[in-house]
Amino acid sequence: MPSIPENVTDQIRLWESDLNRVEMTPAHYYDEFPSRDVFEAACDYAREWNGLLWEDSKTMRLVVKAEIHMHMREHLRRQK
Which of 8, 9, 48, 63 could form a disulfide with 54 if both were Cys (CB 3.0 to 4.6 A apart)? Predict the structure, then answer.
């Protein structure tokens, strides 16, 4: 007979797998785009640099890797 109940060991395994699945990535959040065209162009640009982490087309928000932040800033300045 094990000293720890099976449901407790199962929960510990789930917690451990959850900890291993999350990865911290330095990033920057963008949410104030003057138009849908500028937002779509920014998403495409981030994809080209392999830096797009997340996007929400409905609310025009996106998150990019910190390593492309300066490139993204310059791209957005050229769009204005």
Answer: 63
H or E element in which residue 50 lies: none
pLDDT tens sequence across 60-69: 999 999 999 9
Structure tokens at 64: 């990019």
Alpha-carbon distances of 31 from 2, 3, 26, 60, 65, rounded to whole Å: 53, 52, 17, 6, 15
* Contact between residue 62 and residue 72 where contact means Cβ atoms under 8 Å apart: no
pTM reported for the whole predicted model: 0.73
Within the chain, residue ranges assigned H as helices are 6-21, 36-48, 69-79
